[in-house]
Amino acid sequence: MDPVPQKDLMRRGSVRLRDGRTATIRPATEADAPRLQENINAIGAEIDFILTEGVGNDIEHEREWIRQFDGVSSVLFVSEVDGKLVGQADVHSGRAPKESHVGTLGIAVRDGYRNLGLGRALMERCLEWMRDRQFKKACLQVFSTNGRAISLYKHLGFQIEGIRPRQYRIRGDWVDDVLMGMWLE
């Protein structure tokens, strides 16, 4: 019997969005630096969804950041719709040996591309990659005010593991940091 071929998790794939458009999901490359930088600066400027409010305009620094994702202990996926980079998701393994079995996820999807299934597709791709790399647990942090994201994470199997009350101040209001995790076994 022939061995079952392994899925190439560093492949380029596509997903049909709820509005009928097609999104491509693929690993980031250094050539994506300007568009990644523009994407995260735009999402960060919204203030309400991610901790980062911007990464500036240093393209070489962005390329250096992209190079740190090795596809083995960390990965950065990007998503494009109609040639425009509109989302990204990354995974980093724990730094210390005692937490190397844990992958921490981060995700950012641009306004106008939310509620279309793109966030779910990016998360599922990251979780698939983590399972293939033998991670045992996925974790993430999310603002308590981001109910849409919390709902998605719960539907994917994440559970709330803790809350850091009043961790952030957004637009003058206190916002809790919600810690979520999911066992991958």
Please give a structural write-up.
With 185 residues, this protein is α+β, with helices and mostly antiparallel strands. The protein has a domain at 13-137: Gcn5-related N-acetyltransferase (GNAT) (Aminopeptidase). The chain is built from four helices and eight strands; from the N terminus they run E-E-H-H-E-E-E-H-E-H-E-E. It has helices at residues 33-45, 59-67, 118-132, 147-156, and strands at residues 13-16, 22-27, 74-81, 84-93, 102-109, 137-143, 159-170, 173-183. The longest helix has 15 residues, at 118-132. The radius of gyration is 16 Å and the shape is globular.
Short account of what is shown:
The chain is an alpha+beta fold and 185 residues long. It is 25% helix and 36% strand.
Mean pLDDT: 93
Helix count? 4
Topology as H/E string? Answer: EEHHEEEHEHEE
What is the CATH class of one domain?
Answer: Alpha Beta
Write the layout of secondary structure elements.
Layout: E1 13-16, E2 22-27, H1 33-45, H2 59-67, E3 74-81, E4 84-93, E5 102-109, H3 118-132, E6 137-143, H4 147-156, E7 159-170, E8 173-183
Spell out the key features of this protein.
alpha+beta, disordered N terminus, 8-stranded mixed beta sheet, Aminopeptidase, 185 residues, 36% strand, 4 helices
